[in-house]
Amino acid sequence: MPSNFFWSGRSRSLLAALALVVAVVSLLALPPLRAAADELLSIFRVQKLVFVPVSRDRLDQLSKLNFDKDTLFVTKPTVQHAAPPRTVASAAEAAGAIGGAIGQPSAFPSALLSTEFRVSSPGSMQFQVNVASARQLLALMGIDDVSIPDALGAAPIDVQVPAFAMAHYHGANYDMTLHQGHSPSVKLPDGVDLSQLGKAALRLLGMPAADAEVASRTINWNNTLLFPFPKDTDDIRQVTVGGESALLVSGGQRGEQHRQLYWQHGDTFYMLQASGSLGEVDMIAAMVAAAESIQ
Question: 30-44 burial, b if ≥16 CB within 10 A, otherwise e?
Answer without folding.
Answer: bebeeeeeeeebbeb
